[in-house]
Amino acid sequence: MSTPATKKQRTLPQYELLYWPGIPGRGEYIRLALEAAGVSYSDPANETKDGISKITPLNDKKTTGDEDGNPPTFSPPAMRVPGAGKDGKALLIHQTPNILMYLGPHIGMVPDDELGRLHANQMMLTALDLSNETHDTHHPVAVMEHYENQKEESKRKAKDFRESRIPKFFNYFERILKGNEAEGKGKYLVGNKLSYADTTVWQVIDGIMFAYPNEIAARKGEGEFPLIFDTFHPSFKEEKGIKEYLASKRRLPYSNGLYRLYPELDR
To answer: What is the pTM of this model?
Structure first.
């Protein structure tokens, strides 16, 4: 695993996370990696009243790029890194997995070796697939339509999600933890240290635990996925940096984002 950033390194570089205010959303996958590494970053939309002014240009449908030579972003989250771009200008990148892949080696949140990086990356990408499927349970027909306008379709989608997709994905992550148990002790998916695979998988599992509490309680009661529920999920919350973050106001509550609590969609 790459060497984590030290306290002295918290000030350089100043990573700028560009994401919507008030919700964890896809920005949370990036926040968790940064918090776990103990590196400095700003989150302007949640830190200043006019911070949203840095986010809305990311959706500009007419721009062909910014003044620093970066191509247009599709949508948040994005990350700006001063001095890391072309000719020493700011780098601006988007797409959650792309940002995590960039950050990993810079902040010590990915293994040093190529195989370890590939394994961590495929786990992160699989977790984000599950994240997208979770979102689609409350917006199965049209992303821009209100949930209330597709509630019946959501019920059907959620039933299949609970009965087939949750166990399929959770079984996969349980098997990874089991296969790495000698080294990771059930706490880590790759090796014996925290990586962005762990932060991403944990956030997805935690979001599903919020959105489907009855489903998760039933599976816990049946003794399913013991490494996930008894070791991985609780131990992650005690990790240095993560424990402090989860107890802080920077950790935004779940609301109308990716993970939503609709009792009619639960078991």
So the answer is: 0.94
